[in-house]
């Protein structure tokens, strides 16, 4: 007696279909599982055997062999418990084999036959639907995230007996239904934070608006209490609303990481702010069972590194490649995993260990101490910041001003217009933001007149800029021009972009 059920494993941010084959034959009573299994999957033998017994299924004394195919891919996690149990029941004749066709099953079994939630349901359902599967049986707690995939009939179940009844058409379980439109309509920013709450800092607000418009990386330098963290936390409030495709991509990452919190979909842009004690693995992803790190959890959103020099130098240096590639690749002996990392890097730091340099009335740090503190940030990492802005100390009058500050909605409207210009310009080229321009596309879309070229050449020589810094100035200038609705990059756009590169010369220059 032979039967086959279908399940899936998470590979990167995609689902890999796994065939669960069960064979029942005569011989000494034995329950064996093969197919390059991790320790959690090997332990499924006992969970499945006892769950079947406690669910009322008395299995004859037979030799049971279960194979998880393909056998050259390592199987990890507890999501194979339920499909293994269903394949065995089908082999014994409790379930018609026809009902297992085009049906994908995932879930962890308790010893009493109840079904527990698992991670990675969304990417599994998404990938399986593309491969022709129509029906999905998942734990009840995961049903909403599976139901957001268009055309997928996702059934949320709570027990093994309920699954058997469903596959025998004896249980009128309705597919889970999710109103996608309602998820986005009720999307509100956390804590209702708004840029109107930030007094002053007009230069920093302008720089942030430019950075968000083109998804440029930005570094803020200033004394303690100048509002750097307050500004950074409000950046998501001026970012354009997520599209459904962007939301799906973010949700797949959060589903794998087990951070969905019973949500059907992540409907707002992520803001991740790890502590400076974070390890390289936690930042980039990986581990014994590879999972996405903070840079992937910040995909299409903001990764905020507060007190940048306090991070371990080796830790922040690993950001250099993901910032260029917009993805991170984790190589293991058994497989290679790729996670997206298209985040906007926002960093804040003090100019010295006490925080008040170059104000010698407050700062007592020696020049060597200041340099040693600043040199914790390498020039190669500093080059990857498109914009570097100084957050100045606020005075009493600025804090007490009754002048109305611009709201996040006002700024977001301008940002959205600039984003629409970019989407239209780069349509069909897999470029969505000015920050993604390659050297070849820069020549095409950032053409300069002789006057602008002369200004940029002078700055390149005087400021001793690298080739990367040169390209980033052009990208920022392109964004500034887009904010003004200008097709051509003018001198004022180049000048402002150069100003955002001069701050690192002030602190890190000779």
Automatic annotation (TrEMBL):
<keyword id="KW-0547">Nucleotide-binding</keyword>
<dbReference type="Pfam" id="PF13541">
    <property type="entry name" value="ChlI"/>
</dbReference>
<dbReference type="InterPro" id="IPR045006">
    <property type="entry name" value="CHLI-like"/>
</dbReference>
<keyword id="KW-0067">ATP-binding</keyword>
<dbReference type="InterPro" id="IPR004482">
    <property type="entry name" value="Mg_chelat-rel"/>
</dbReference>
<keyword id="KW-0175">Coiled coil</keyword>
<feature type="domain" description="AAA+ ATPase">
    <location>
        <begin position="214"/>
        <end position="395"/>
    </location>
</feature>
<dbReference type="Pfam" id="PF13335">
    <property type="entry name" value="Mg_chelatase_C"/>
</dbReference>
<dbReference type="InterPro" id="IPR020568">
    <property type="entry name" value="Ribosomal_Su5_D2-typ_SF"/>
</dbReference>
<dbReference type="InterPro" id="IPR014721">
    <property type="entry name" value="Ribsml_uS5_D2-typ_fold_subgr"/>
</dbReference>
<dbReference type="InterPro" id="IPR003593">
    <property type="entry name" value="AAA+_ATPase"/>
</dbReference>
<dbReference type="GO" id="GO:0005524">
    <property type="term" value="F:ATP binding"/>
</dbReference>
<dbReference type="Pfam" id="PF01078">
    <property type="entry name" value="Mg_chelatase"/>
</dbReference>
<dbReference type="InterPro" id="IPR001208">
    <property type="entry name" value="MCM_dom"/>
</dbReference>
<dbReference type="InterPro" id="IPR027417">
    <property type="entry name" value="P-loop_NTPase"/>
</dbReference>
<dbReference type="InterPro" id="IPR000523">
    <property type="entry name" value="Mg_chelatse_chII-like_cat_dom"/>
</dbReference>
<protein>
    <submittedName>
        <fullName>YifB family Mg chelatase-like AAA ATPase</fullName>
    </submittedName>
</protein>
<comment type="similarity">
    <text>Belongs to the Mg-chelatase subunits D/I family. ComM subfamily.</text>
</comment>
<feature type="coiled-coil region">
    <location>
        <begin position="382"/>
        <end position="409"/>
    </location>
</feature>
<dbReference type="GO" id="GO:0003677">
    <property type="term" value="F:DNA binding"/>
</dbReference>
<dbReference type="InterPro" id="IPR025158">
    <property type="entry name" value="Mg_chelat-rel_C"/>
</dbReference>
């Amino acid at each position: 007696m032979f039967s086959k059920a279908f399940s899936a494993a998470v590979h990167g941010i995609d689902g890999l279909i796994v065939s669960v084959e069960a064979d029942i034959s005569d011989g000494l009573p034995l329950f064996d599982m093969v197919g390059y299994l991790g320790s959690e999957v090997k332990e499924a033998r006992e969970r499945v055997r006892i769950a079947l017994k406690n669910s009322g299924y008395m299995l004859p004394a037979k030799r049971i062999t279960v194979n998880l195919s393909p056998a050259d891919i390592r199987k990890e996690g507890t999501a194979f418990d339920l499909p293994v149990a269903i394949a065995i029941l089908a082999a014994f004749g409790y379930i018609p084999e026809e009902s297992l066709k085009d049906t994908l099953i995932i879930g962890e079994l308790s010893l009493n036959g109840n079904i527990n939630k698992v991670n990675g349901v969304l990417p599994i359902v998404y990938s399986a639907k593309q491969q022709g599967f129509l029906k999905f049986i998942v734990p009840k707690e995961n049903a909403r995230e599976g139901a957001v995939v268009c055309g997928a009939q996702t059934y949320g179940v709570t027990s093994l007996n309920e699954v058997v009844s469903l596959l025998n058409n004896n249980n009128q379980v309705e597919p889970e239904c999710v109103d996608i439109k309602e998820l986005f309509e009720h999307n509100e920013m956390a804590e209702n934070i708004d840029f109107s709450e930030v007094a002053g800092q007009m230069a920093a607000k302008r720089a942030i608006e430019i950075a968000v418009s083109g998804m440029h990386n930005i570094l803020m330098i200033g004394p303690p209490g100048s509002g750097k963290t307050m500004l950074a936390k409000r950046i998501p409030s001026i970012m354009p609303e997520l599209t459904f495709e962007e939301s799906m991509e973010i949700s797949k990452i959060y589903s794998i990481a087990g951070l969905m919190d019973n949500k059907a979909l992540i409907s707002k842009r992520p803001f991740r702010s790890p502590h400076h004690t974070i390890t390289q693995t936690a930042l980039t992803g990986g581990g014994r069972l590879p999972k996405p790190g903070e840079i992937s959890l910040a995909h299409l959103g903001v990764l905020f590194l507060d007190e940048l020099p306090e991070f371990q130098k080796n830790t922040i240096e690993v950001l250099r490649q993901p910032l260029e590639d917009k993805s991170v690749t984790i190589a293991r002996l058994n497989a290679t995993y790729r996670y997206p990392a298209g985040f906007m890097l926002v960093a804040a730091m003090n100019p010295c260990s006490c925080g008040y340099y170059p104000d010698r009335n407050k700062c007592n740090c020696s020049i060597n101490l200041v340099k040693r503190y600043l040199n914790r940030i390498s020039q190669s990492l500093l080059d990857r910041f498109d914009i570097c802005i100084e957050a100045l100390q606020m005075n009493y009058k600025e804090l007490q001003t009754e002048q109305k500050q611009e709201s996040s909605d006002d700024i977001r409207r301008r940002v959205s217009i600039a984003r629409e210009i970019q989407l239209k310009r780069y349509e069909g080229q897999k470029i969505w933001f000015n920050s993604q321009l390659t050297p070849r596309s820069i020549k095409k879309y950032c053409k300069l007149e002789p006057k602008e070229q002369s200004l940029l050449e002078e700055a390149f020589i005087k400021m001793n800029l690298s080739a990367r810094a040169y390209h980033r100035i052009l990208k920022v200038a392109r964004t500034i021009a887009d904010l003004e609705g200008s097709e051509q990059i003018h001198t004022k756009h180049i000048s402002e972009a150069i100003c955002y590169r001069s701050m690192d010369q002030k602190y890190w220059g000779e």
